[in-house]
Amino acid sequence: MQGTPVNIIVGSHVWVEDSEVAWIDGEVEKINGQEVVIQATIGKTVTAKLSKIYPKDVEAPAGGVDDMTKLSYLHEPGVLQNLKIRYELNEIYTYTGNILIAINPFQRLPHIYDAHMMQQYKGAPFGELSPHVFAVADVAYRAMINEGKSNSILVSGESGAGKTETTKMLMRYLAYLGGRAVTEGRTVEQQVLESNPVLEAFGNAKTVRNNNSSRFGKFVEIQFDKQGRISGAAIRTYLLERSRVCQISDPERNYHCFYLLCAAPQEEIEKYKLGHPKTFHYLNQSKCFELVGISDAHDYLATRRAMDIVGISEKEQEAIFRVVAAILHIGNIDFTKGKEVDSSVPKDDKAKFHLKTAAELLMCDLKALEDALCKRVMVTPEEVIKRSLDPQSAVTSRDGLAKTVYSRLFDWLVNKINNSIGQDPNSRSLIGVLDIYGFESFKTNSFEQFCINFTNEKLQQHFNQHVFKMEQEEYTKEAIDWSYIEFVDNQDVLDLIEKKPGGIVALLDEACMFPKSTHETFANKLYQTFKTHKRFIKPKLSRTDFAVAHYAGEVLYQSDLFLDKNKDYVIPEHQDLLGASKCPFVVGLFPPLPEESSKSSKFSSIGSRFKLQLQQLMETLNSTEPHYIRCVKPNNLLKPAIFENVNIMQQLRCGGVLEAIRISCAGYPTRKPFFEFINRFGLLSPAALEGNYDEKVACKKILDSIGLKGYQIGKTKVFLRAGQMAELDARRSEVLSTAAKKIQRRIRTHQAQKRFIVLRKATISLQSICRGRISCKVFDNLRREAAAVKIQKNGRRYYSRNIYKKLHVAALAVQTGLRAMAARKKFRFRKQTKAATIVQAQWRCHRATSYYKKLKNGVILSQTRWRGRLARRELRKLKMASRETGALKEAKDMLEKKVEELTYRVQLEKRLRGDLEEAKTQEITKLQSSMEEMRKKSMKQMRCLSRNAKLQRKPLKKLLLLLKKHKF
Ligand SMILES: Nc1ncnc2c1ncn2[C@@H]1O[C@H](COP(=O)(O)OP(=O)(O)OP(=O)(O)O)[C@@H](O)[C@H]1O
Predict the structure, then answer these.
(1) Is 597 an annotated catalytic residue?
(2) What gap in Å lies between CA 230 and CA 235, rounded to an integer?
(3) Best substitution site from 87, 94, 106 to test ligand 1's pocket, by max atoms within 8 Å of Cβ?
(4) For residue 377, how far is the Cα from the chain centroid?
(5) For the segment 607-632, what is each residue's pLDDT rounded down to a tens digit?
């Protein structure tokens, strides 16, 4: 795409094309006719042709634009600068209309691929969120669901640009959208996703351009049912790089599976008699055995796990790795000259050991294997001749066997995965994801590059057809006013390659079928046939090379190995050998050829098979709605944050990105049938629809009412310029969102009102319930309080009463005690007083009595003595007076009177004592009840009293005795 040097005036900011750094920016100093002098920002003055100068958009947003069709100046430096700005901000995705450009970040950016992101992109309108691979997958999915049409996503880019990673993301997102419940432990989408590590282990290898380069093309068809759920899947692979099995260059590696197996657990290493990769010829041609940051041992286990998930049984896995090990051993069978001329035999014991191990692992006959490698059977009409091969040919035969076995193994894996995932015959539609090698142009380009570039030509044509050709056809059909948009149609290159008869592929097949053909004869044939073809170039200095002017540039091919690489037949000896293996798995890899084909032609060409495959692929793609993702590799160092301008510009040119931008801007990339247009955008101008039944006029009115310029109205469709649809959609979204807001507002008001009424009612009843409950609680509390007070009162009363009772009883007891004590004291005092009185009376009585007695006795004595004397005197007188008896008798009567008196007194005393005792008994009886305790005392007192009584009795006794003595 060449820029149009508009607005180039002195002082304007411009870009200048520079072959080394791609672009230099600066300010125009001078314009001299067709030459411009620029003061570049890199500090030098540059003089360039006016046609190499492009205006710079000084008002472009600082963060770049997410769709390049939005750029004010659409030219290469503008596009590059935009990508660069975004890449520096880690915005690796940018749209170019409907094409997504993905720049490999060479660093993990998990935040842009997590579940949250998937959720965000699910159902989001295209262009609403920032560009993303999920957005493309979402568009494809929605289009499939809404229109019921199959879609395809074509991922392209050069090796290491990130196609496989992008494809994986697409598959992950589609699995997320169409995932379904787990059945039998694993889902279809799980199997589809897990097929990636299995295919990567066997089809990927480290190359100089990518540490995990897919050495095959892949088209994954994901089938969906009516509900949009994944119901099946099919994987188609294209052109596995067979030569890598036997030949690798430093610092590349062979297919990952070989290294994985060499890092397997020890028992497997021993079982397959393996060792370090450096001990195997197929691996040690390069010094690179390990990958930085990758553990082969870990990957081996991961691959086995993935194999389990995709449905490869344990037994099959064992057989697969046995065959892989056998290939490694086959590679170590070296040959030396045999005894016969031009014959060969295993070189040494080491070669024999590997031959034997390979035979064991493939479960075929050792001798048959040796013969298959060292001999050829020639069938002539006359006889069957066995011809020996020289060591060089034996090595070629050996490598041929290894390549055939490996490619059959790879095909088996793909078939197995397809069978295991299963196809859905009732699938409504599918989404195909194509991850195919990008355009390749190296120093030496062989048959592989030729096929790869052929594929890219095909895809470019599909792209052209979709983007340009069909577009312009449509313009004509719809009779809109348009000017022809120039684009490079590559049909002539495709004719050069695939035309039948006469194309390069056909000529190659022809050459392969003639035994005497060599690459020189083939090249000559090409030179002759395409002498005048403008896309075919014969290099001046070479006799076998040829160049093709591809859409992305000229590529020089070396035809040396074209013939060999194009031959796709299995040497019959190899077929017979492995067909007779005792291992059913190996036999399965080499099914017997159909009788006819083996007879008619043993030859089949890789080129024409590949051509056929591509044809089928194109048919599939043509029946789908395509979406394009162009992966870009920002640098060859495979490091993040390095943006190599020239390299990227080249990729953008090759990928047709710039061309697509140009066409998008020059043409009418969006169109809609009138009906659909009115249906969709009628709401932008309701007035335009009123009373108007002509759709075309209505469409025009709608567009005019919005004020869009530059659109076209065809016979049945409205044609819009790039970005106009977005503008219309934005307006529509605005109208819809205003309407939606209005409706939402109303509905929300209504709902809120309803909610409010219900809420109020509920609140009131809740409040009344609450209040009721609170009152109940308060009442309950009051009742409880009253009860508590009552209980407390009663308790206290009871307690006080008890205390009082005790106190009362105690007081009574004390009072009683005290009173009793006082009474006792009084009683005692009275008793003592009484007793004292008695004692005193007794004593006095006694003393008086004693005194009286003494006196009386004395008196009596003295009287007696006296009377005696008187008596004696009288007696003497009486005697003398002799018997004066009368006097004596009188004395005697007097004495008797006295005794009577004394007896009366004794009786009186006795009666007094009885009265006293009676009073005493009465007193005791009275006091006995209250003074139980004092009984003893009283007893004592009684005793005392009785003693007193005794004492009282004593004088009485004495008195009685006295009376007795005196015989009263
Ligand atoms: N989106 C991404 N995020 C992070 N790293 C990425 C991304 N895309 C690619 N890469 C890195 O780039 C490497 C190469 O990517 P990938 O294998 O997808 O390239 P490719 O285009 O498929 O190459 P080939 O054609 O050789 O198979 C990956 O191994 C990965 O490290």
Answers:
(1) no
(2) 14
(3) 106
(4) 61
(5) 888 888 889 999 999 889 899 999 99
Q: Which two tokens stand for residue 706?
A: 């919005």
Task: Please write the tens of the pLDDT for every residue from 51-96.
Answer: 778 877 766 788 888 988 777 677 888 888 899 999 999 999 999 8
Residue 561 has a pLDDT of: 84
In our burial notation (b when 16+ CB lie closer than 10 A, e otherwise), range 242-261 reads: bbbbbebeeebbbbbbbbbb
Annotated ligand binding at 162? The verdict is: yes
Phi, psi of 128 (to 5 degrees): -75, -45
Q: Are 502 and 510 in contact (CB under 8 A)?
A: no
pTM of the model: 0.70
Inter-residue contact 444 to 242 (CB < 8 Å): no
Joined tokens for residue 556: 């020089």
* CA–CA dist 649, 569 (Å, integer): 41
For this structure, is 833 an active site residue?
no
Average pLDDT over every residue of 250-276: 93
Residue 273, judged by CB atoms within 10 A of its CB (0-12, 13-18, 19+), counts as: middle
pLDDT at 564: 82
Q: Which amino acid is at 503?
A: G
Structural contact between residues 37 and 30, judged by C-beta atoms closer than 8 angstroms:
yes
Q: How confident is the model at residue 906 (pLDDT cuts 50, 70, 90)?
A: confident
Mean confidence (pLDDT) of the chain: 84
| Residue 925 labelled as part of a binding site | no
Q: Which atom of ligand 1 is nearest to the CA of 167?
A: 18
Cβ-contact 409, 400 below 8 angstroms? no
Round to the nearest angstrom and report the end-to-end CA distance of the chain: 190
The amino acid that residue 595 corresponds to is: E
For 503, other C-beta atoms within 10 Å of its C-beta total: 20
Active site residue 286: no
Ordered by start, the domain boundaries in the chain are: 1-56, 450-569, 668-722, 726-965
One-letter amino acid at 368 equals: A
Choice among 26, 127, 160, 311 that is catalytic: 160
Please say whether the beta carbons of 296 and 251 come within 8 A. Answer: no
Whether 332 is catalytic: no
Cα of 217 to ligand 1 centre, how many Å?
A: 14
Which stretches within 59-187 are classed as H helix?
76-88, 115-121, 133-147, 163-178
Query: Looking at the domain 450-569, which fold is it?
Result: Methane Monooxygenase Hydroxylase; Chain G, domain 1 (1.20.58)
Could you tell me if 438 and 455 are in contact, meaning their C-beta atoms sit under 8 angstroms apart?
no
Distance CA 584, CA 364 (A): 11
| Two structure tokens written together for 806 | 């005790």
With a cut of 80, say whether residue 947 has pLDDT above it: no
Q: Pick the closest to residue 671 from 472, 491, 838 (CA basis).
A: 472
Q: Tally Cβ neighbours within 10 Å of residue 808.
A: 12
| Residue 64 designated active-site | no
Closest C-alpha among 740, 494, 733, 458 to residue 619 = 458
Q: Which amino acid is at 691?
A: G
Instruction: Determine how β-strand 35-40 pairs with β-strand 22-32.
Output: antiparallel
Give ligand 1 pocket residues (Cβ under 6 A): 104-106, 108-109, 157, 159-165, 210-214, 437, 631
In this predicted model, which residue has the larger pLDDT, 560 or 864?
Answer: 560
Classify domain 668-722 by CATH architecture: 2-Layer Sandwich (3.30)
ipTM of model: 0.99
Amino acid, res. 24: I
Residue pair 506/494 in contact by the 8 Å Cβ criterion? no
Q: Which of 213, 231, 303, 397 is catalytic?
A: 213
Q: Residue 605: pLDDT above 60?
A: yes
For the domain 1-56, what is the CATH code? 2.30.30.140
* Domain 1-56 identical in fold to domain 668-722: no
Assign 423 to helix, strand or coil: coil
Among 272-281, 292-301, 845-854, which is the least confidently predicted range? 845-854
pLDDT of res. 26: 86
Q: Which two tokens stand for residue 914?
A: 């009885």
Q: Write down the pLDDT at residue 276.
A: 92
432 labeled part of a ligand binding site: no
